[in-house]
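Sequence only, no structure available. Ideas?
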Amino acid sequence: MKKSELKEYIREIILAEISEKDITELNKQLKLESEEEPTEAEIKKEKSLTKAQTEYTKLTKELKSNVGKIKAIIAKKPTERTKTEELLLAKMKELTQRKNQLKNKFSNLEDED
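Reply:
I predicted one. Tokens follow.
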């Protein structure tokens, strides 16, 4: 018996033993394995991303709500600004820096995908 004939014979025997139902079940199992649940690391990453997005949204809203005040403060000479205005200006600078950090974080995550 030639090698190719032997291979064909073995193939026929295997196919005779495996029913169509078995093949269908095997395909279902393979699909389920490929659609596995996310790992803990993926879940943590997603929660972290959601938290960062929420923070980013809050920062953006606060910055937008104070745009008029900031423009008015900046229009004044530094010597004419009150202490409260200086504090608000400093706070807005910090919020802007944090917003930019989050924006960079999002950009880095998009680059990874």
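The first helix runs from residue 3 to 17.
Hope that gets you unstuck.
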